[in-house]
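User: quick one - fold this with zinc ion bound?
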Amino acid sequence: MKRNLLRALLILNFSFFIFHSALAQISAELLTVPEKTQYTKTSLYADVMDLISALDKSSDLVYVTKMGTSLEGKDIPVVVMANPKITTPEEAIASGKPVMYVQGNIHSGEVEGKEALQILMREIAFGDKKHLLENQILLFAPIYNTDSNDKLGVEIRRSQEGSPELIGVRSNSQGWDLNRDGIKMEAIETNALIQNVIMKWDPEMLVDLHTTNGTWHGYSLTWAPSYHYAGEKAPYDFTWNKLLPEVTDKVLENYDIYLGPYGYHNLRAGWPVTEIYTYNHHPRYIVNQMGLRNKIGILSEAFAHERLYQRMSSTHAFVTEILEFTNDHAQEIAQINDEAEKAAIDLVKEKAGKVKKGVRFKMSYLEDIPAYRSYEYIPYQEVDSAGGYLSMDDVGYAPNRDKVKLVRGTRIVTLENVKNYSAFEPVVESTLPRGYLIPAEFANIAEHLEKQGAVVTKLEDSITANGEVFEATSMEKGRRKFEGHFMVQLEGSFKPATKTFEKGDYCVDLAQPLANLIFYMLEPQSDDGLVTWNFFDHYFERQGINESPVQYPVFKYFKLGK
Ligand SMILES: [Zn+2]
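Assistant: Sure. Structure tokens for the protein plus zinc ion:
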């Protein structure tokens, strides 16, 4: 009896220990605002900075720096976690450990990434996740969009159903959507991210934390890799075929949470759905751009309709298991990315002028069709002719407008044969050049390429080159403004040409790490290049594009010299 009691007590004690082993006793400063408010409130900028500074003071694994300062003068914090602690990118290189980067709050109304990262940093410093620093260096930017986080309002994101009630706004304080700014780089934050995180620390992976806009799929979180279109395939394949499936399994196994591929389903064709669609492939989205930089990008979208604590839970579980995976495969990832970079350079060196690559793409579906989870929809018929008594608002789509309508039910069901439109096929291709020559008067283009990390040189002497010139026959502008721009689409054709450029003009040798990104930015027919974002409008208008064909001033060369 006594022995049994002792054993029972031991077991009780032991389970108590297991349950609480995640965190030793911590100071209240390390609790997040949601944890302290029954998940009714999200952290303000000052709260995040306080927690970060408490971490900094109490942990010897933490170094706090900033990527830049916002329009309103707020430092955008970056927390570097390493064991042993490091403070510079040079020390990261010397350690031999690859850098992985995770950011929250790119859209300030989507708050759970910001909260989950604060908890995760605390657990790495003081809980049971210190081992995540064994093989990698972690950079966290929990509050990327600092200014807008504190511009609180109700019903800013209705699909989140008031959990929490007050949240910040989407765009930054200059009015830009930070997740559409990857090419044009108008936002202070984008410049800070690209120059002071991506170019300086050279992370092998970027994870961007969001919340979806409201499709009632059956997952607590959906993900997407950096989509494959104009980049190297290996980092994409590794993310899509290995990292994401393994992480998804682990999250289900360890947290009982379902994850799945990002997409909107289409109810227009009725129920059950047969297709889901992802978003665009464009590198204006920072996750996609990572692919053109020969790195891994991962989009994380918590399910908007879950409560804040659930969204924090799924985001926390996803990021944790990603970092478990990258810790286990750190060197392999660095090697895959290095080989992708080498492949991009080699292709330019060996095949310039001989191969074509896509510059405009259309969406197509993946060959592999796994099961798809969704909330069930119930077809019903209207009972009167006055428009029915059930609102379609919560469906969010206009289903069959005829007789049968759909209302969302309470069950989650698994559907087979749902095509996942997450692949991209080129619809316009262009010849890969050895490089580009840019007249001196377009110094702004050279500067912009350099801001993205490209190597641009000034010609010391005049030079003659063989290649192709693009003769633009029409320049069409978007009818509606998008992110402050009437976006441009050029039509025309390339013609063989020999041209001479002078001392002071610019040369971009494409045999460099950012070959794929530079190609996508400089190709005149690219669907997300510098032409698209109005960098050449004045030139084309001045030259009279509306009356007669105009040559695109950036010359694409296959070979220098006659
Ligand atoms: Zn978002």
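One thing worth noting: The chain has three domains: 24-347, 372-415, 433-560.
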